[in-house]
């Protein structure tokens, strides 16, 4: 069993920064990512398979989630689920649990930093967003798209922000449409209900106005997850969008078509 160690993650992912950070800032980081809380939780669920770990972790937070529309999905199809990204982690766990319950084992495309959550490594497909993708990771990525198992992606990459007073995703990247067409997978749009705290959104907007490029607000995502304790969420699954339809559209138009389909589910 491996405990979460913020200092070691920093040394691994950003060694230059890790050497420069004073001790009090490292300790502050440990507090806002709830390192002690997580390391108290993990021993109770670490030994469980990924989906049981998800149920245990979200159960610990007393988070409940309900699905609409997933029961209409043909279990024999090959799908790429594309969702908005309100939470930056918890939404991935909820969706993985729901998709697995209805369609079987799922793979979730994630930022490679999430591979520190060891119990979920078997269902994660890591993407390196801060450097070149390794050959092993690229092969794993291509292999899952060639398989029949359901896949889950968050095309925005980052969690939602408050933009002009509205909680919404940043621009959806186009690679998920390219992979859908190349692997002949229909896309199922998904909408997850939820939002983070005003502190998170205000910090993000302040950082943007000041011209700071680093997404420092991301450091608070675990803290934001703990703030969701006791909440109840609705998750809506839409109708499959044929890869053939998307193939015949200009790429950016196809991306916006799926994004609009996702957000239209919120009205349902």
Secondary-structure topology with pairs:
Layout: H1 6-13, H2 15-20, H3 23-32, H4 35-45, H5 50-60, E1 64-68, E2 79-83, H6 90-103, E3 107-111, E4 124-127, H7 135-146, E5 151-153, E6 161-163, E7 166-168, H8 175-183, E8 186-192, H9 198-210, H10 221-227, E9 232-237, H11 243-247, H12 251-264
Parallel strand pairs: 1-9, 2-5, 2-8, 3-4, 3-5
Antiparallel strand pairs: 6-7, 8-9
Helix pairs in contact: 4-5, 5-6
The CATH class, by name, is Alpha Beta
Q: What's the CATH H-level superfamily name?
A: Glycerol-3-phosphate (1)-acyltransferase
Q: What number is the mean pLDDT?
A: 91
The second-level CATH architecture is 3-Layer(aba) Sandwich
Could you tell me the number of beta strands? 9
Descriptive report:
This protein is of the alpha/beta class. It is about 45% helix and about 15% strand. The chain has twelve helices and nine strands. It has a seven-stranded mixed beta sheet with strand order 1-9-8-2-5-3-4, with helices on both faces. A hairpin with a 2-residue loop joins strand 6 (about 160-165) and strand 7. Helix 4 crosses helix 5 (about 50-60) and helix 5 crosses helix 6. The longest helix is centred in the middle third of the chain and has 14 residues, at about 90-105. The radius of gyration is 18 Å and the shape is globular. The chain starts with 5 loop residues before the first helix and ends with a helix.
């Amino acid at each position: 069993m491996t405990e979460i160690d913020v200092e070691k993650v920093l040394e691994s992912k950003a060694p230059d920064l890790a050497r420069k950070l004073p001790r009090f800032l490292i300790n502050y980081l440990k507090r806002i990512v709830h390192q002690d809380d997580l390391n108290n939780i993990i021993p109770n669920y670490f030994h469980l398979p990924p989906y049981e770990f998800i149920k245990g972790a979200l159960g610990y937070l007393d988070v409940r989630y309900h699905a609409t529309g997933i029961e209409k999905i043909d279990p024999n199809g090959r799908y790429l689920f594309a969702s908005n990204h309100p939470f930056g982690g918890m939404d991935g766990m909820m969706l993985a649990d729901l998709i697995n319950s209805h369609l079987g084992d799922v793979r979730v495309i994630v930022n490679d930093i999430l591979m520190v959550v060891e119990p979920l490594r078997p269902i994660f497909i890591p993407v390196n967003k801060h450097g070149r993708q390794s050959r092993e990771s690229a092969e794993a990525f291509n292999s899952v798209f060639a398989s029949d198992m359901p896949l889950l992606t968050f095309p925005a990459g980052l969690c939602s922000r408050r933009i002009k007073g509205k909680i919404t995703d940043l621009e959806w990247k186009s690679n998920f449409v390219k992979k859908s067409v190349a692997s002949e997978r229909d896309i199922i749009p998904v909408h997850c209900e939820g939002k983070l705290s005003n502190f998170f959104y205000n910090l993000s907007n302040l950082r943007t106005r000041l011209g700071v490029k680093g997404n420092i607000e991301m450091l608070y995502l675990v803290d934001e997850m703990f703030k969701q304790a006791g909440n109840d969420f609705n998750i809506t699954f839409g109708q499959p969008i044929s890869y053939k339809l998307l193939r015949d559209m200009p790429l950016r138009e196809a991306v916006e078509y799926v994004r609009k389909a996702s957000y239209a589910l919120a009205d349902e």
